[in-house]
Amino acid sequence: MMNLHENLKRAAVASSASVALLAGGVVAGPAPAEAAALGRVCMVNAPDGVVENMNIGHAAFIVKDRARSNHWIYGSFGSTVNGPKAGWIRGGTWEQARATFTKVNFPGTKKQYYTRYRCINTADGDLKTAQSWYTTVRNRGYNGHTNNCLHMSMAVFKGYSRILRNDKRLPSATNKLPNSYYDKILKNGHWEASHKLDRK
Hints:
This protein has helices at residues 2-23, 94-102, 127-140, 149-160, 162-165, 178-188, and strands spanning 39-46, 58-64, 72-76, 88-92, 116-122, 195-196. By secondary structure, the chain is α+β, with helices and mostly antiparallel strands. The protein has a 6-stranded antiparallel sheet with strand order 4-3-2-1-5-6, with helices on both faces. Strand 2 (58-64) and strand 3 (72-76) form a beta hairpin.
């Protein structure tokens, strides 16, 4: 009987110690398999783009390469300020992408063109499809009403992410102004708060 009592007492002490260790975060179960890297997309905005002081704006895009730790695809369409109107796309680190947009000025001035960006993480992200949709939009040719910078950015985002493609809070870019889409629609879609694109 004494042996049984002692065994139960020891088991209770051991159990209490285990609970304390777990509560303190010292003991953990087997580490889960590493989760797949999140996708991420960012719209870069030039609030005075196209025509200054008219609140039209210009949009550009940055999307994350989930297969590489710090590689992004970024570009623009429909603006001659920092590339051909027919569009451009390139790859690089986040720092390179950010610097590319930060250093752009209005022609003939030192006034910064792109001044802010807004991002969202996604559970998916297909860079190949994003690039394919970029090519499709570019090949249609620029049209200020039906195939512009906002159409391009949203096509890249929705090509990249099926989740964004099916998000009913992100309507067609047709008849939408880049600034309005950036300020209202992306905000209502629970994208992150707007970040300043400050020059360092």
